[in-house]
Amino acid sequence: MKRLIELVDIVTRNKVKSIEIIGNDLDSETKLMQFYQGIYSGKLTNDQEAFEFLYPGMDSRNAYYKLKHVLNERLRNTLFFIDIKKNKFSNIKRAYLECQKLICNFNLLLTKGARENALHLGEKALKTAEEYEFTQEILFLSRSLAANYASVFGDRRKYQEYADKVHYYHQVFTAETLVEMFYMDLLSLYVRDKSTKTYVYELAQDYLRQLQVYRNKVSSCNFIFGLNMLHTIQYMSINDFREAYRITGKALDQIKNYSFFNARAFTTLSFQHIACCIQLRKHQEGVLTIHALEQIMEKGTFNWYKTQELHFTLSLHTRKYQEAHAIFKQVTLRPDFKNLVQNIRETWTIYGAWVYLLKASGKIKEERRKGSDKFRIQKYLNEVPTFSRDKRGLNVPILISQIFLLLQQRKYDQLLDLFEAIEKYKDRYLDHEHNFRSNVFIRMLLQVPKSCFKVVRVRENTECLRQRLQEVTLEIANQSHDLEIFPYEDAWGLLLDLLEQ
Fold it and tell me: In CATH, what number does 2-169 get?
């Protein structure tokens, strides 16, 4: 009752006005609700459309800008009343939002001098923060509680309890911050340039050495996740996919058996594990990991599209061509596909080239019907850009797919120009050490025009190169995991079929 009396006093003294939020009355005819509904339905997408709809025939926009400001305020107020229990938040997200709401109330009540309520909410928030290891929140709340119990109540037992938490979690916070910054530093090297970077191995090793002091002192989920990602990047930087596969598999077991489920850690590690499964052609395990991911994410989200990219590539590498086609159709026929950022759509356009070629070769069977995916060859040849910042990344599968398409279309003049360009590209960007398989495969392709497009002569002139390609298999090749969208051995068989046709 003491806390309730304190709350009533605070609310009464501060004269709370009626709370203005966006409620459930969506049938309201007010301009405010018309504005809200117009945005929600997709009818109003910019200021011009909204102004003309809400204030037809008017010249001055003052009333419109005032209404826009009011809607902004109402929506921000409404955020505090969202029922997180009725939304599709994971347990950890729901706990995080609940913790933040409690901290907001804790700060407000402290500011207003309602310490009984403030400390009660602070301790409640701290319990949630500790359960889900929200280290930054634990540190903030422990400091505040320790300060209040020491300076206001003189309660040394309570003070000591929270002071001990401050000392321990300060160390945890430092360890988690360091591992996250090291991880982000390495990650930033691959966002715009997916080429192999062997120097990353030594850099990751140095970061792991700096973190050694915390290994026996900190065991939080975020710290474990960060360490495993550093180890994974370290081995993937030198394309040691067997070791990366071992690390990610073990890390996923740790995450799954932890006291709570960390979706971010599970998703990120799963992506790396699937990439390793692609290189090692472990279809069954890769698909099981993909299905586990799909259980925790909504369709149409960024991570869902990333998962489908990995699933498509895994299917091609394990010759599950019908499966690859089904994935391609599921993604590209979605209504929201056209609204994706350009680089994601371009990736699926490249995939579409291989789907088309597999159809043309009879390796994918499909009944033509309304809604089937269509591939515009000339548009792909003319408009798909090269990734100028990624000279050893997606340029390779783009150029190779263009050669196959021109060959399938028997456009030999364009082919000769492209072969000349790809030879220069090979000499400049595809060295033996880091891109052996791509270097060998393009040299095989360059024998096609030199052999006058005659399949018998192509076979004879490329036999030594084909054997070299087989000697350095995909799993031991020193190249980026996403360089071969379609395995070169399978692509070569497809090319010979095209020449025979």
Answer: 1.25.40
